[in-house]
Design a protein that fits this description.
Strand content: 15-25%
Mean pLDDT: 76
Order of helices and strands: HHEEEHHHHE
Largest sheet: 4 strands, antiparallel
Number of helices: 6
Low-confidence stretches: none
Length: 189
């Protein structure tokens, strides 16, 4: 097969990095544990806060180093699992809050929702921004047609997310342009 040599090298590199980094990780965890034990013993014997502060500072540096190593490993794994030239990032498109009266509430209950869309690429983001007025109109129609019972609970909100996602994809005339709908504010009063 064409191109498998490059993937084999990526996999081999990942295995080597994992083995090397897991050893580093184990050593750093051991060092942190040792520093904490020594600091606790010394602080009880000597009673100085200076040594304790130094140990905590070293502990924080080690934790930061571990975090960097883990994020590098995640990046390497992601790059190795994706063929070259196909790295796509998700984009979040925020919308202004939408406030509507709920159906069957005699204008006594309203919903305030702030909605963000995760789109698959820059073309989708551009389409969402260009069709913002049409999308907001559909959001108002969808939300105002729901009763309190329709939007209560996790299941009600998930159903609402799916309806909104499908509707926005229809407005955009693009299949799966919107990957996910997020409510960053969802208040019923």
């Amino acid at each position: 097969m064409i191109g498998t040599g490059n993937n084999d090298r990526n996999v081999m590199q990942l295995i080597a990095d994992k083995n090397r980094n897991s050893g580093i990780y184990s050593i750093l965890v051991f060092i942190i544990s040792l520093f904490v034990l020594v600091a606790d013993a010394n602080s009880s014997l000597i009673g100085t806060k200076l040594e304790n502060g130094i140990v905590r500072e070293l502990e924080n540096e080690c934790i930061e180093e571990l975090s960097d190593i883990q994020s590098q490993n995640i990046d390497r794994r992601r790059m190795a699992s994706e063929p070259e030239g196909t790295v796509e990032e998700s984009l979040i498109v925020p919308f202004d809050p939408v406030i509507v009266n709920l159906s069957n509430s005699n204008a006594r209950r309203y919903l305030k929702a702030t909605i963000n869309f995760e789109v698959k690429d820059l073309n989708s983001k551009s389409a969402v921004v260009k069709k913002g007025v049409q999308i907001k109109d559909r959001l108002i129609s969808i939300l105002s047609s729901r009763s309190l019972e329709d939007i209560e609970g996790v299941e009600g909100q998930q159903l609402l997310r799916n309806i909104i996602k499908d509707t926005v994809n229809v407005v955009l005339k693009m299949e799966d342009a919107v990957l996910q709908v997020y409510f960053t504010e969802f208040v019923v009063q």
